[in-house]
Amino acid sequence: MSRSNWVPITAIENLPLKEGRSLHWQGLDIAIFNLGTRVVAVENKCPHQDGPLVDGIVSTFEGRITVTCPLHTRRICLESGHTVKPAVDGPCVRTFPAKIVDGIVMLQEKRLEAEAA
Amino acid sequence: MKQQLAVIGNGMAGVFCVEQILKHNHNFDITIFGDETHVNYNRILLSSVLAGEKDVDDIVLNDIDWYRQNAIQARLGLRIDKIDLAAKTIHSAQGCTTPFDKLLIATGSSPFLPPISGIDKQGVFVFRTLDDAKHLLALSGEGVKAVVIGGGLLGLEAARGLQLQGCDVTVLHLGTHLMDRQLDFTGGQFLKRKLESLGITVRCNASSKDFTGGTHVDGVTLADGTQLPANLVVVAAGIKPNSAIAKMAGLDVNRGILVNEFLETSHPDVYAVGECTEFQGQLFGLVAPLFEQGKVLAASITGNRGPVFTGYTPATKLKIMGADVFSAGDFDDQREGVECVRLEDPSLGIYKKLILKDNKLEGVILVGDASDDHRFMDWLRNGTDLTEQRRHLLSPPPSAGPGEDAAALPDSYTVCGCNGVSKREIVDAVHAHGVCTLAQLKDKTRAATGCGSCAGLCQSLLKAVAPDYAEEKAKVLCSCVPFPQDQLREIIRSQKLKGVQEVLDIYGNGVGCEVCKPALSYLVDVVWLGDHDEDRSARFINDRVHANIQKDGTFSVIPRMRGGVTTPAELRKIADVAEKYNVPLVKVTGSQRIDLLGVKKADLPKMWEDLGMRSGQAYTKGVRMVKTCVGSTFCRFGTQDSITTGVELERRLEDLFTPHKTKLAVVGCPRNCAEATVKDIGLIGQEGSWQVVVGGAAGKGVRKADLLITVETTEEALDAASLFFQYYREHGVYLERTYDFVERLGMEKVRRDTVYATDAVKLGLLDRLKRSKDRATDAWLERYDPRPFQFEPIQVADNGLVQIEIEEKVHV
Q1: Which of B518, B11, B13 is nearest to B298 (CA)?
Q2: Which residue in chain A is spatially nearest to B804 when comparing CA positions?
Q3: Contact between A102 and A51 (Cβ < 8 Å)
Q4: In what order do the strands lie in the sheet with B548-549?
Q5: Which of A10, B142, B693, B707 has a CA that sits 20 to 30 A from residue B782's CA?
Q6: Is B502 helix (H, G, I), strand (E, B) or coil?
């Protein structure tokens, strides 16, 4: 198991509450969301028709926090990456560990690299 | 062997009576004779046909299939002119003879024609039948001078209808005040002011002497010598029963055909119903008692003699939007021992008067607000002792709970006076047939299909009685915040909630979704006139970046081009921008604007800056554009300056949000080149006036816009459009287009609440529009103060270090 390496990304002020911001890094297009007490990061690409999840509205479905894709209103679970509404089998959206430390949003580098590979 | 039942008269009373007979076990072959060629229609609504609010088809009560399904022979266009009681036959003017075992006379009434010379001239009409209405419609129009003789119920409704068709209307009334059989002098004055404010000229104490002109009428001369020009005259001076054939046959006839409490005439096999009858000295001119008669008669004629007709309490309702009148009972306050309770509000134009004797209601007059007429009617009919309610006679105490008013009504209470539907029948319809919506109720019982004024009461009855009603009615915004939108508006207003998150925290699940958040964003904006807490996380992406997201995540840019008018310089700029940013597709839209498609999000603010134009709001639920034709500026046919007017209209409404997108158009003549009749709001220029139309659509469905009002000046047209616009903003359900909105509310209500509302209401709408407008700004100005990383992605160096500016923040 590789040593985790948390990388500072941006100040939390740059992520308005309950909105997504996109992030290009290491060849990846990532959507990162500020949920108030925590941040979550997912691949910025809806499994349905590649819609930019970063432009979606933060929503909820059966107790899970979701983002609604702006193109065809699919709801994607921000924790698991599953499409929960409509419930479809198919590829998940990749999710990335993220956290806030002293007001700075951090992503885990190792994991990113592994995913990118 | 079946008995032959012949019915003379295919009007509301006769056919209603037949409907009642069908409910009994009967042994009749039924033949109905009608001298009009139409199937049975709702005569009360002829004024709505004339007003253009209803089509002829809308007022049909029984279509031809009904006759077939019930094995009823309809002989339409046949006038019966003789009854032979000895031979038991009836004879038509065309010469055919029909035998009968039982005869039902429902010949109705005819207009009374006062002795005015020249009354037979062309252009002089009565207003009684569908054909009369059609003739009037054909002749009426802009600038036509119409004179209506008679300021009673029918005359005033005809006057209003003609005026809505564009005529200049004068009402000549012989009496001292309008509707003098139903109103006292003060009530008549209030009504006169109402009508005059709607643009109808009223002259009382006016005795018409002569209709002047050649073969066609060209004017009216009054007894005092006054001359009035007239292209069209409607005589509505009262009605008289059609009792002549009964009299010739030898039946007992006074003014009407005499009937007893079982609706039997002086001959054992002959019955009569409706306006042709006379009962204990009473004649009939309104529909409600006729239905009572029909029910009694149906029982008598089918051998179930028992129910009796006991006469009726006269009650009248004037169906003119913006000039409500209700009158019932005896309103004479000079009688011994009567008390009079009055309310007069000249600014609102509301007059209410109750006549009480021994704490019981004897008469009532309502002008300007007849919304609670059923309360008074109920007191009158039942002789309710009002001792307990003396403090709340004119303004009822707030209802204890939903359904309370409905629950308080007795079972026998007539909910729908037009069709004689009682509360009991409605409750039965719910229990026996599972009725739970107003549409189903109309279908099953006919309630609320007449003048429609009882629809509210029907709704509250359904609410109280139908088990499934609550769910249907309570169409909540979303499971995240389970309240209907009108209730949410009220919550937002009363709880002073200015942000979407507040509403979600207190009344919802705290998170929301893409359905409720944009809707709540709209509601807080419109309730607080733009002075709300804007929350972009609750807006759809289009309203965060002020551009329309496309299938590949790029955006489209449409600058505002008011009225579709542009300049060479502007076009050059657009061309330069398109080249500079490698815009893949430049397209002229259907809305007379230019669309730059395939734009990267990051380029948006820079393009706005380079364009130097305003946002066209083509991405939002808001004011899209005002499409215009060339109009009088260049067009050979243009009668109005559509371009200047359209540009001004767009300027007044742009940058505002609406429940759904709002598309407008202004055309300079009725050729309608910019398709104003299929827009949410359209202005149609014509010689000397504008028609303002609303609720049009040319999308998935095509719907011709309804006429809101016709006005003379451009300023009035802009105001009328603004009134409707703000009204739609305040009452439209989020994502409801105007074409659904006007159908849900009905144009009658829309007009009543906007262009025919009191000045105070109109000023309120315009003021709220102005205040919202004062706060609204061009969304593209946000380029000067963009929100953090709204357009550009966050840049992170590949080596994992944050940007310099972030480092600064961290170390500060």
Answers
A1: B13
A2: A10
A3: no
A4: B548-549, B555-557, B594-599, B585-588
A5: A10
A6: helix
List phi, psi (to 5°) of B412. -80, -5
A4 touches chain B (CB under 8 A): no
Asked if A73's CB is within 8 angstroms of B553's CB, the reply is: no
Answer yes or no: are the C-beta atoms of B385 and B359 closer than 8 Å. yes
Residue with tokens 């740059």: A14
Q: Which residue has the higher pLDDT, A27 or B295?
A: B295
- Among B112, B122, B153, B151, residue whose Cα is nearest residue B230: B122
Inter-chain contact A24–B800, Cβ cutoff 8 Å? no
Residue B794 near chain A (CB below 8 Å): yes
Stronger pLDDT, A51 or B443, i.e. the higher one: A51
Residues of chain A neighbouring B521 (CB-CB closer than 8 A): none
Q: What is the mean pLDDT of residues B430-450?
A: 80
Quickly list DSSP for B13-53: HHHHHHHHHHHS---EEEEEEESSSS--B-GGGHHHHHTTS
Distance from CA of A89 to the nearest CA of B (A): 22
Does residue B401 carry a pLDDT above 70? no
Q: Is residue B163 a contact partner of residue B148, using CB atoms and an 8 Å limit?
A: no
**Model pTM?**
0.53
Helix (H) or strand (E) holding B650: helix B642-653
Closest CA to B606 of B786, B777, B778, B776: B786
A3 touches chain B (CB under 8 A): no
Candidates A17, A52, A109; nearest CB to B537: A17
Q: What single string gives the DSSP state of each residue in B442-490? A: HHHH-TTSSS-TTHHHHHHHHHHH-TTHHHHH--EEETTEEEEHHHHHH
B702-753, pLDDT tens digit by residue?
Answer: 999 999 999 999 999 999 999 999 999 999 999 999 999 999 999 999 999 9
Looking at beta carbons, which residues of chain A come within 8 Å of B540? 57, 70
Contact in structure between B323 and B198 (CB atoms under 8 Å)? yes
Q: Structure tokens of B286?
A: 């309104």
- Give CA B104 to chain center in angstroms: 36
B798: chain A residues, CB-CB within 8 Å: 25-26
Give me B422's structure tokens.
């009682």
In whole angstroms, what is the distance from residue B787 CA to residue B782 CA? 8
Is the complex ipTM more than 0.90?
A: yes
B327 and B456 Cβ atoms separated by less than 8 Å = no
Report residue B665: phi and psi, to 5°.
-155, 150
Identify the CA nearest to B511 among candidates B528, B531, B535: B535
Is there a contact between B230 and B217 (Cβ–Cβ < 8 Å)?
A: yes
Q: CB pairs under 8 A, 24+ apart, for A44-52?
A: A45/A93, A46/A71, A46/A72, A46/A74, A46/A76, A46/A93, A47/A76, A47/A83, A47/A90, A47/A91, A47/A92, A47/A93, A48/A72, A48/A74, A48/A83, A49/B551, A50/B552, A50/B553, A51/B553, A52/A22, A52/B549, A52/B553
User: How far apart are alpha carbons B127 and B109 in whole angstroms?
Assistant: 12
3-state DSSP assignment of residue B517:
helix
3-state SS, residue B71: coil
List the single residue in A with minimal CA-CA distance to B517: A57
Task: Show the DSSP H helices in B184-325 as ranges.
Answer: 185-197, 244-249, 287-301
Apex B318 CA angle, B135 and B289, nearest 5: 95
Tokens describing residue A31: 């959507």
pLDDT tens readout for residues B247-290: 999 999 999 999 999 999 999 999 999 999 999 988 888 777 88
